Request: fold
Amino acid sequence: MSRVRCLAAAGLVLLSSAALTTATATAATATAGPRETGVSRTPEAASLKPVPPRVQRTRQRNAAPPRRRRPWKTIRIEPAAPSAADQRPPATDQRPPAAPVAQQRPAVAPQSMADPRRPAPLLSPENMRVLVLTATPGERFSAAASRSALLVCDPTRGSHPQGAQACGQLSVVNGEFTALRPLPGVACTMQYDPVTVTASGIWDGRTIRYQHTFGNSCVMRSTTGSVFAF
Reply:
């Protein structure tokens, strides 16, 4: 009987100890609840990493309401007042007005200039007219005392002072010096003052060799005209 009582007493002691432990834990939880509100004590919550400050600022900026933009302002720009230089009257052109295009005459190229579109004639012995003319006082030719000139015809060139007239006279007789005749109506004196003239060169493919002695200069000019007038 005493043994049963002992066991019953031990059971009551154990129940009292369990009830006291439970009451103590409940009181501790109730006491710590308001200070640790929102904090999870689960193992999973305790293992989470803290959020970086940069991520927290980004979340706060995205969560913040958008800014209200200011309305656009209309700015009116007034034109600047004209200066004294801008108020001067424009300069007028004193030149006379140009003639209408229909009345303007086209520029005429000088006749001395060759047409670039026309090819230059090819010089050959068949169309060359080149002569060397000399005049020597006396009955014989002397290179030291003679006067000479170069005559080129078609076109007229050379050192002959009257080349155009000389070429015209020779063209009439086809370059034949012996065919030259004295001009009618010209009277010369009978004074003997001989002059010897020569001509050498090419005339239309023919070789020219001419020499003649005149009684004086008057007879020479009346017969040959401008050919030996140099």
About this structure: Confidence is low (pLDDT under 50) at residues 32-40, 105-116.
